[in-house]
Amino acid sequence: MNAPRASRFAAAANRRGIHVSFEFFPPATAEMEKSLWESIGRLAPLQPNFVSVTYGAGGSTRERTHATVSASSRRRC
Fold first, then answer.
1. CA–CA separation, 16 vs 60, rounded Å?
2. Whole-model pTM above 0.70?
3. Residues 29, 36: contact at Cβ < 8 Å?
4. CA quadruple 34, 38, 43, 47: dihedral positive or negative?
5. CA-CA distance, 29 to 50, in Å (whole number)?
């Protein structure tokens, strides 16, 4: 069985010394939050150097951003 695409990319990137980061938008709904964590799970094999979460214009998504950052730091994406 072939390794997932993200795992194959991560292995190649590590051999070449490539650094990866991701930026996410805070989810606006419960469905979007589920999709976010599924996406993060698929991207995790890439072992990003860091992730960031968009704050939103005028702080309109401040609470969602904080919750996403807190959860992602506990999960160690």
1. 40
2. no
3. no
4. positive
5. 24
